Amino acid sequence: MINLNKQLLLILLLFTSKVNAEFKLGLENISHELLTQLKTQRLGLITNQSGVNQQGKRNIDVLQEHNLTITYIFAPEHGFKGTVGSEKAINDSIDTTTNIPIISLYGNGTGKSIHPKKINNIDTLVFDIQDSGMRHYTYISTLLHTMQDAAEFNKNFIVLDRPNPLATRMEGPLVSKDLISFISIASIPLRHGMTIGELALYFNKYVLKKPVKLQVVKMHNYSRNNGAYDKLLAPLSPGIRSIQSCYSYSFLGLLGEIAPFHVGLKTDSPFQCILLPKTIKFSENNWRKLQALLKSYNIESKRHTIFNKKLNQNFSGLRLHIKNINTVNSFSTFLSVLDFFKKNGVKLFYSKAFNLAIGTKGLQETIAGTLSRKKFLAMTEQDLKDFFKQAKPLFIYKPLPIVN
Q1: Cα dist. 246→137, 165, 295, 317 in Å?
Q2: Residue by residue, what is the 3-state secondary structure of 88-150?
Q3: pTM, rounded to two decimals
Q4: What CATH architecture is 26-233+394-403?
Q5: 99 — alpha (psi -120 to 50), left (phi > 0) or beta?
Q6: Residues 10, 147: contact at Cβ < 8 Å?
């Protein structure tokens, strides 16, 4: 009988340990006390198709099952369903499942504030969107804009935290004051290494002129090393539909702002390719050399060709695969890829948005040879160290980001 009781106790302890160790998103980890408080409030939910739990259920439905009142849904770039292309207008609509009005927070290339009539009809804004891990991805711009709106109208602001799919690394330039824009909303690192909740805490302390009444619902049992556990619960946008696109976007997002490169957009492998028009004579030997270069940065690749119907043009190059994003230094990879193509005679043409996205004019000056590479990298490194020191008290999860 004693041995049987010991066995039952051991089973109970093992079961309890397993339950306690279970990972939970912020959406899945809302306390009873907070739910009770929110039942008396009118909510504005800032979300899109990425706002689901680990079973794929929409946050709207999860919150309504807790008897919470959602007055409005607010949608960022790419729309509520995440199907609209980049920099396209997002129109207001209705969620056909719940009949809740969906209000657009994005225009042609920029964000929109919440109209006073709308925000005065709510008590609390709730933000639940999966971020990409890169500063120039505009979901975090919508985060800052809506925090500003909430602060201005004295509304509560709650962030339901989600993983950073790019995991631990913090790298790349911060944003120069003259280049702050909707695609680089604040002076944080290019690959910021933080969760959406940690970013909200940073914005509230160091960016907002007037702090908002902020609460971050933390994830349970989350390790930054795990990133997004090698999967996305839902596509982030038409261009980032898989974890591989998300990984490679960490440097191909910028490469896509430079002609003549094609990075696979509007194909079955968006942000997974480095391609050139076949009219540019780039030898097989050069592609093999690029493969070797990428492998030295822990990126596998294979030869890949596509036909772009819109351009009526063939493209040739590489399709990439990243096994472990923690081992990839995105910014160093980006610099080395640019150096490689320049060395091999490919002329580079930067889009108007390039400096805004990368946050500095220094890189183009470095590539052109008018700014010392050593000086540029030293300034970038010092800025990263200063940012890390400032942000460190606000980090929620271990291990802390790794500064590169």
Answers
A1: 11, 7, 18, 19
A2: CCCCCEECCCCCCEEEECECCCCECCCCHHHHCCCCEEEEECCCCCECCCCHHHHHHHHHHHH
A3: 0.93
A4: 3-Layer(aba) Sandwich (3.40)
A5: left
A6: no
- Please say whether the beta carbons of 74 and 44 come within 8 A: yes
CATH of domain 243-360: 3.90.1150.140
For position 367, what pLDDT does the model report? 87
> pLDDT > 90: what percent of the chain?
90
Domain layout of the chain by residue ranges: 26-233+394-403, 243-360
> Is the previous residue joined to 260 through a cis bond, with omega within 30 degrees of 0?
yes
Among positive and negative, which fits the CA dihedral 58, 62, 65, 71? negative
Residue 179 to residues 93, 184, 209, 361: CA-CA distances in angstroms?
33, 8, 19, 9
* 321-349 mean pLDDT: 97
Choice among 7-16, 24-33, 76-85, 256-265 with the minimum mean pLDDT:
7-16
Could you tell me if 224 and 176 are in contact, meaning their C-beta atoms sit under 8 angstroms apart? no
Give 87's DSSP letter. Answer: T
pLDDT tens column, 3-62: 444 444 443 333 333 444 799 999 999 999 999 999 999 999 999 999 999 999 999 999
The confidence score (pLDDT) of residue 312 equals 87
Structure tokens at 136: 């120039």
d(CA 49, CA 106): 15
How many residues would you count in the chain? 404
Taking residues 80-87, report their average pLDDT. Answer: 93
Task: Summarize the confidence of residues 112-119 as an average pLDDT.
Answer: 96
Give the span between the Cα atoms of 273 and 287, in whole angstroms.
Answer: 12
Quick one: which of 238, 231, 213, 207 has its CA closest to 48? 238
Q: What is the residue whose two structure tokens read 């891990």?
A: 133
State the pLDDT at residue 10. 43
Residues paired with residue 316 on neighbouring β-strands, in sequence order: 276, 305
